[in-house]
Amino acid sequence: MESTRIAIDYSNKEKFYKELLSEVTGVLEPEWFVNLANISALLNQHLPQINWVGFYLNHNGELLLSSFQGLPACTRIAFGKGVCGTAAATQTTQLVADVDQFPGHIVCDSASKSEIVIPMIKDGKVLGVLDIDAPVLNRFDHVDQKYLEQVVALILSKSIWPNSLI
């Protein structure tokens, strides 16, 4: 049986992200691990020109690979290392137009050329990051950042997180 991919029109980014946020809201469950799996699949389905999307979770001060879509990835990233570790350590979104120009970039997939990483912060603590890679330069902009930060905020607010993460 062949599955059909239903795409949201990306020609108007604001409209695209409003529809995407509606879909994200529609699949959210109380269980955090279900949400990470479904949201990584949903973003992979709808975001054009990406080659990897997924989550890393904070475990004893390092980021461990969690739910994702794409090629196998780095399994452990130290806080402060690479784009993901920098987002976690600084608690700020990293919008990287050219990963080869990012000091200390960790190459998990040599096809990746640009990246956005949004930290997942709850009650002042970093739970993890949402990481999205693209095989083209300058793939992400401030519109992507604004709405992907809203996706993360929805996941954080609608999920029940285990005490080990918060």
Could you explain the architecture of this structure?
By secondary structure, this protein is α+β, with helices and mostly antiparallel strands. It has a single domain (13-158), classed as 2-Layer Sandwich (Beta-Lactamase). It contains four helices and six strands, in the order H-H-E-E-E-H-E-E-E-H. Strands 3-2-1-6-5-4 form a six-stranded antiparallel beta sheet, with helices on both faces. Helix 1 packs parallel to helix 4 (142-158). The radius of gyration is 15 Å and the shape is globular.
List keywords for this structure.
25% strand, 34% helix, Beta-Lactamase, 166 residues, single chain, six-stranded antiparallel β-sheet, alpha+beta
How is the secondary structure organized here?
Elements: H1 13-27, H2 32-46, E1 52-59, E2 62-70, E3 76-78, H3 82-90, E4 94-96, E5 114-122, E6 125-134, H4 142-158
Antiparallel strand pairs: 1-2, 1-6, 2-3, 4-5, 5-6
Helix pairs in contact: 1-2, 1-4
